[in-house]
Structures are given as structure tokens and as C-alpha cells.
Amino acid sequence: MGRTTAFVLVAVGVLVTGCLGGTTVEDPARNADAKDVTLTIVANAVSGGKNARGADWIANWVIPRFTEAQKAKGVTMAVRFEQSGTADEAFKTKVALDFKTGGGGDVVELDGIWLGEFAQAGQVKPLDDVVGKADVDAWDGWKQIPEAVQGLGRFEGKRYGVPMGTDGRVLYYNKKLFAQAGLPADWQPRSWDELLSAAAALKALPGVTPLQLNAGTAMGEATSMQGVLPALVGTGKPVHEDGKWQGATSGVKDVLGLYQRIYRDGLGDPVLQQEANGRDRSFRLFAEDKIGILLEGDYFWRSVVEPKNGVAKMADRDAAVGWALMPAQRPGAGVGGQDFVSMSGGGVRVVNPNSRFPKQAWEFMRFLNSAEAVKASLAGTAQITQRGDVNDEVLAGDPMLSFVADKVLPITRYRPGLADYPKVSAALQQATADVVAGKSPDDAAKAYQDALVKAVGEGSVATG
Amino acid sequence: MAGLGVARAVGFVAPALLLVGVFLVFPALWTLYIGVTDYQLTGPAAAAPSAVGLDNFAAVLDDALFTNSLWLTALFVLGSAVVGQNALGFALAWLLRRVRPWLRRTTEGLVLLAWILPGPVVAYLWFAVLSRDGGTLGLLLDDPTTAWLVQYPMVSLVVFNVWRGTAFSMLLYTSALAAVPPSQLETARLVGANGWQAVRDVVFPHIRGHVLTNTLLISLWTANDFTPFLLTAGGPNHESEVLPVLIYRQALEGGRLGYASAMSSLLLVGNLVVALVYLRLLRRRA
């Protein structure tokens, strides 16, 4: 017994002296002159799977060329690429745990919306602190990145990372199914009612789910970005305004009412929204001509139904897939009096404050964001990149992405980069899950309001 | 310690004590410590957590998700372990006593296989069976529209876990039944007892201790089992969110490490209580 007691005492001693959290800033110039350098880049991309093009680009283009260039300067550079091909939430958890334990890659790709949380946790730090202000300011790439896109890499006015481009959300529709249902090939709904009436027409087709609007908790942030938030800005107010989050407001209730009309009236498949891999399934069903209308980002066009490398290839994509702007609830009822709305996000690359080689990591970042590298990352396809010079050149060839750049980006909104946002987003996802599972919009809104007050405090919640 | 000496005895025990301390005592105490803070995975409370006393515990007990999860865990343990694995394990052991050795060995081998395969592998297999995308069960029943894991999540998990864990009960009961004197079974048969009466009045008194031990072990394993996460991830809409899944989701998906630690502590206490009750029963028997 004596020994056990002693052991417990030792353990308690460790506890008392141990501390949770706490971070320090190190010298940005450490190891700046090293001749033997190892860098690791971490991304949620995997060859042959999720974001395959990005993964292949890093592995086959970036790493060989960067290593070669360093060799010419007399530096033995080894770059490791840690690939992942998992759900965004799982990737975020992995990165947070990496940072928390003082590990992780030297350059890490994050979703821009996580930046606030990581920054507040001290897990990522302003670039000025990590690699030195002079070096950061000296990069000539900044002036190529539009102001709105640069915002993705900023938190509380400080630069934390370099954005990786942006995106926009539209309604994709299957023109073959539209033709069968007697709907026009150049469709553009002007209100939620018009959207639902098109879905009602598609309902006549056997084996076809007319309209899938992401809902529920299983899809995580996809529910917010491709569901609740675009609908919500269509009611006139963004989710966060004047320092307050929208509680059980009329806008939120209207959005939940829209979900009810879709999923309780048989226009959408409620089971799909509850399955563990529902989003992948929705991709596949759309590619198999079994979903009529789907709200998705331009990622869907570039990487999902893309005929050659997509995860749910559609050989006849260019002829069969149409796109339309997401309408506001009624014409002019959208945020800022708009007729149409969208939401945007984007990734951002950060330098890990724990990196052994911060200067070299920054050099690697500059290389990753050079015009030449960004162009190579597209591999002949188009995407809205972070660089204006590259966009001017590549978007012209792709009608869908030019549409996003010309028509969607001017009307889009970004999520608030606040640490509380994920909690609010989770509460909104839960509210849609409740409606899909059969709760009334009013009850779901009430439960949402309670959850929101619990999560962010009563003073930060707007009602009415 | 006759003949060994205190120093050498300590030497022998020290490695074990060290392992227990590092991997058992320390994490348990650490969990208790985090449980009284608002520690988070990200955000301001990750950099500077503050002590919140017993607030987490109060909030957990008031959390509808926790109550829901507690109920589901009880259902899972009762359905799949206490009743399912126990009954099926005993039935298999009892029925396989008299059959031909090759049949017994084949059956035992198959049951064991379910037990020794790695969790992700069996989860994938069951996913393939229960999926509505050409899943085996859907094809067999000619019913391609039922998503079993979504529409009947708890039933699926209970059936799965019975399949998964019966091997242990079967093995334990097989060896326990070997200890029942054949002469007593013979006597029972001679005085006209039917099968059920023989089990109840002759076999059960002999294996009572085994039943209790078995039930204790499989209950604890099932209550702490994380495999349900691989099958349903707690969904749909928390309908199969047993405690380990809830704790994982709160801690890592929700980032609320302090809150989830409080839940873990409560699960730990629950395990201890169950273990104590069983030990009590065992002692009373002795």
C-alpha cells in the first residue's frame, strides 16, 4: 500500500506542475542557414482519391522542382508529403491534434474557416511572427491576390497564411432529366417557389430524387455551406451581423421551412442526409442521373463529375450538367437586396510555428504560390486560383468557372472567421437534422435557439 | 515474501507497477484533471484553459445527449452482451458438446474468426452487408430500399455485437461445462428431468461463478466498445450514439476536451459500480 500511495503522490505532483496549453514564440531565423533540410507538407488530398489533382501536383511537380532548385543553391532538401483523403472534420481534428502536441507538417493546408480557432488557440501564428515581417512583406505574390481572397488568410487584421483560391456555390441540374420532365435546358429559378416547382415536376420521373439540399449532422460543414447558409442569405440576413448570431429568427424559421418542404414532401431523400457517407452518395447518384438538382460548390464541377479524374465521373458532363444561380427566397429578398445569392470559402496554407525551418518553409510557400506553380496545379483544367494573373489566363476556357468568377463572386458572401462559428454551424446542422427527422420548423428553431444560447451566450444571439 | 526478500520482490513488481502507473493511473487522474477545466481542442480555451470546478459534470448530467447516450449504452449492453452473447455463447457450448468433433471445431473456428478479426475489417464487412447500395442483406431479402444502419441503427449494432463477441462466452462456457460431473447429468436424466430442468438444476449451480464472471467481463467490454463508431458514427441524428462514441464526438469533433473528460470520468465511475455489484454477487455465492 505504501508504494501505491507514493505512486499516487508522484502522479499528483506531475499533475500540479503540468500545464495545459501555453505557447511560446521562437526565433524566426532559427536554422536559416541549414544545408540539410527536411520539410513536410500536409494536405487533405490523396493520389487517386480526394483532391487527387492537388496531390499529384505536389508529389510530381512541386517536390521534384523545388528540391532541384534548392540543390542548385547547395541545399540538400527533402520534402515529405503527408496525404489524407478523409472528411474535412476528421482532417481538422488530425491537424488540431498535430499542432497541439507540437508536431504537424511545416506547411499545412487548412480550410480558411478554421483559421480563427487555430489562431486563438495559438496553434498557428501570424506569418510576421513565424517567418519575420521583412520576409513576408518582400514577397511579390501578394499584389496578385485580390483583397477579398486575401481575407481568407487573415484573422483580426493579421496575415496568418496564403490563400489557395476561392469558390462559389450554384445549383447544378441534370439537363437530361430536365428534358424528360419538360423543363427548360437553360433553367434559372427566381425564387424558392420556382425551385420547388421544378423539383415537383421532376418528381414524376421514376427512381429520380428531384432535389437534394445538404442537411443533417453527418455531412458536417457541407450542410452549412451547401444548404443552410446559402438559403439563409436568401432570406436577407447573413448568419452573423452587428456582432450577433441569428437565433430563432424569421429567416432561420423560413430556411427550416424550406427543408421541411423538400424532405417531408418527398422532393428530397431524407435517408441519404442521415447516412454516414451521404455526400459521396449524392455525388454518385447525380452522376448516375438519379438526382435532378443539387446545390454544390464549383468543386463539384472540377473534381466530382469531371469526366477524367472526378470521384464520380460523368462522361457527358459538358452536355448534361447545367448550372443556375441560387435564388433568394423572393426576387430582391436576398442579402443586400439581391435576387441571387451564394456562399464562398477557400483553403489557406500556413507555416507551422513549431517548424524547425521556418525560413525554408516560407520559401517553399512562395514556390507553391508562384504563378508557374499555380498554373501547373491546374494541369490544363480551370479553377479560380488565388492569383489574378493566372485566373485571367485559365478561366476563359471553362464556361462554368468563368460563370462563377463573373456572376457568382460579385454576389457571394464569406463565413465569419470567428472562433464561435463552428459551434453555430453545428447548431444549424442539428436544426436541419431535426427537420429532416420529422420535427416541425418551429420546434427545431426553438431547440436551435437554446443550443445557440448555450454555445455563445445570450448576449450574442439575435431573435425576431 | 518468504525466501525472496523485500528488495527482490520490489524489483519483480516494479515494471508492472510502472506500466500500470503510466498507462492506467496517470491517464485516469489526467482525465479527472481535464474534466474540471474548460480545455478545448482549438480556440482561446486551448491556449489558456481555466478551471471551472464541477460545472462540466453538472452540465453533462443536464445534457439530453448524455441521457440519450446512457440509455442507448444500457440497451446495447443488455441486448448484445448480457442477453445476446451470454445466451448464444451458452447455447453453442451446450449444443456442441455432443456433436462430431469436425463439426464442433468448424463451428468454433467460425465463431472465433468473428472475434479475432480486426475491428475496421469487420466493420467494413458489415457495412457491405447492411448498405442499401447493393448490400448483401438487401439482395438476399430482395429489398434494396432499406438502409439498415440508418433505419434500424440500434438493432443493427446489437446484432453485430452479438455476432462479434459470442466467441468469448462460448469458450468460457465450453470449459465450464467440462467441469460439470457427467454422473450428475446422468442421474438427472434417470429421474426424468428434461433438458431445461437439467440445465437449471444441475448445470447452472456448477457454473454460476462462470456466468457472473463472463457477464461482468462482456458487459464492461461492450460498454466501452468503440466499434459502433465505425458502423454508424453515432447516427442518424444521435440514434446510436453510445457513450464511447458520444465522448469521442464531443472531444474530437466538437473539440470540447474538458467536457468530454467529465463524461469519461462518469463512464469510469459507471464501470466501477457495475464491477462492484458483480463482485458482491460473486462473494455472496462464496
From TrEMBL, chain A:
Gene3D superfamilies: Periplasmic binding protein-like II (3.40.190.10)
Stated name of the protein: Carbohydrate ABC transporter substrate-binding protein (CUT1 family)
From TrEMBL, chain B:
Membrane topology reported for the UniProt record: Multi-pass membrane protein
GO cellular component, one term: plasma membrane
Gene Ontology BP, a term: transmembrane transport
Residues that span the membrane, as ranges: 12-34, 70-96, 108-127, 147-163, 257-279
InterPro entries per record: MetI-like, MetI-like_sf
Domain ABC transmembrane type-1 per the UniProt entry, residue ranges: 71-278
PROSITE patterns in alphabetical order: ABC_TM1
Main location: membrane
Highest taxon of source: Bacteria
Localization in the cell: Cell membrane
A Pfam family this chain is assigned to: BPD_transp_1
Keyword annotations: Cell membrane, Membrane, Transmembrane, Transmembrane helix, Transport
Family: Belongs to the binding-protein-dependent transport system permease family.
Name listed for the protein in its UniProt record: Carbohydrate ABC transporter membrane protein 1 (CUT1 family)
Organism, scientific name: Umezawaea tangerina
Lineage: Bacteria, Bacillati, Actinomycetota, Actinomycetes, Pseudonocardiales
